[in-house]
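Need a sequence for this fold. Nothing fancy.
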């Protein structure tokens, strides 16, 4: 537990459920990333946590930004980011949003299909465009499936079209899946990108940028490789495949930048059993799937808990949220155990909840207000 957050919770006793996030920790994470991958430009993936104090701090540090909507672009501009340092990274954009971004000075856009490329040619003429390719998401605890990206053969054809249509064929991007626990996922993806670079060079198109996306993991219940291991694997693969003609490198960390900077504080609403002799207790919290813990879907992201009784005797639990929806059960199969002493009214903390929590909270399902946020 981060000591700064622990003393904030002790001194201010904020109403639950709430997120308390240490913005200094975000700065440390930015520095760790820069140290692990000094040649890469960092584009913070705004969707992980778009709070103004985070964008302000990162903008001040010289970070660039990966935005998925015109609204996120506006938030970056308000935080002092230059339009030239914002990438419109969503491959599915309204043309009105493309127009607004281009008018504001954004010149870097993602796409993964011909119809999207047409929109860019019409509404962002001359812009730098990069094509997202499909890559293996094995090893990712929150995979992105086939929703984004296209096959390599299509990417090549589209880059040739981009040049013919007056756009600047800038580079290739991929995303190995979020909470990626295997460094080899990046190595395999880089090999694929390098082949596209070579083939396009033969076709007279010189790409200049590799966008390695996000995916860098946060420690939840289980250990994950350190960020330096990802940096080493990525630089090793880049050097192997591109030699000393290294292209510009972009990374788009979301979870890694903010995940371990935040803690959710929650109150236990009820501890009960389904039968007197049932060893499993049900622990209902005042935050659940609809309060922002969307990534507990499929028990994919397994948060670590702190309680007032850590170290005392524990027993098996099912952990659920407060709403009257049966999908609002967080963990039933992941072998969670919590102290036997835990009871209604106790406060528990969910660690490393700074990413992908606040913006997932529903408006007022069952009347519950969205998660309160404290940036310290
Ligand atoms: C969500 C997203 C990211 C951030 O991914 P993390 O796994 O949180 O690092 C980066 N790039 C794009 C295009 C994204 O959609």
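Here you go.
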């Amino acid at each position: 537990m981060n000591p700064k957050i622990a003393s904030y919770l002790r001194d201010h006793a904020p109403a639950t459920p709430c997120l308390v996030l240490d913005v200094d920790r975000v700065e440390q994470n930015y520095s760790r990333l820069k140290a692990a991958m000094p040649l890469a430009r960092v584009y913070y993936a705004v969707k992980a946590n778009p709070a103004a104090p985070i964008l302000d701090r990162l903008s001040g540090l010289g970070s660039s930004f990966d935005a998925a909507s015109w609204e996120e672009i506006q938030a970056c501009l308000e935080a002092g980011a230059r339009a030239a340092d914002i990438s419109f990274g969503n491959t599915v954009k309204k043309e009105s949003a493309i127009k607004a971004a281009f008018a504001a000075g954004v010149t870097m856009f993602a796409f993964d299909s011909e119809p999207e490329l047409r929109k860019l040619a019409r509404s962002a003429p001359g812009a730098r465009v990069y094509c997202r390719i499909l890559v293996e998401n094995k090893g990712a605890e929150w995979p992105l499936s086939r929703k984004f990206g296209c096959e390599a053969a299509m990417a090549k054809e589209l880059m040739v079209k981009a040049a013919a249509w007056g756009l600047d064929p800038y580079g290739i991007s991929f995303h190995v899946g979020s909470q990626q626990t295997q460094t080899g996922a990046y190595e395999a993806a880089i090999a694929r990108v390098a082949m596209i670079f070579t083939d396009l060079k033969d076709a007279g198109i010189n790409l200049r940028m590799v966008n390695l996306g996000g995916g860098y993991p946060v420690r939840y219940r289980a250990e994950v490789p350190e960020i330096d291991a990802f940096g080493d694997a990525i630089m090793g693969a880049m050097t192997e495949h591109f030699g000393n003609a290294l292209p510009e490198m972009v990374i788009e960390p979301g979870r890694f930048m903010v995940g371990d900077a935040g803690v959710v504080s929650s109150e236990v609403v009820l501890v009960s059993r389904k039968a007197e002799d049932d060893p499993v207790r049900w622990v209902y919290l005042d935050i659940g799937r609809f309060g922002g813990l969307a990534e507990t879907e499929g028990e994919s992201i397994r948060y670590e808990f702190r309680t007032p009784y850590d170290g005392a005797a524990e027993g098996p639990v099912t952990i659920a949220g407060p709403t009257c929806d049966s999908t609002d059960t967080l963990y039933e199969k992941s072998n969670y155990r919590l102290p036997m002493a835990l009871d209604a009214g106790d406060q528990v903390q969910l660690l490393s909840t700074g990413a992908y929590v606040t913006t997932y909270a529903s408006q007022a399902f069952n009347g519950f207000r969205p998660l309160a946020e404290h940036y310290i």
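For context: The pocket of pyridoxal-5'-phosphate is lined by residues 45, 47-48, 66, 89, 175, 178, 213-216, 252-256 (CB under 6 Å).
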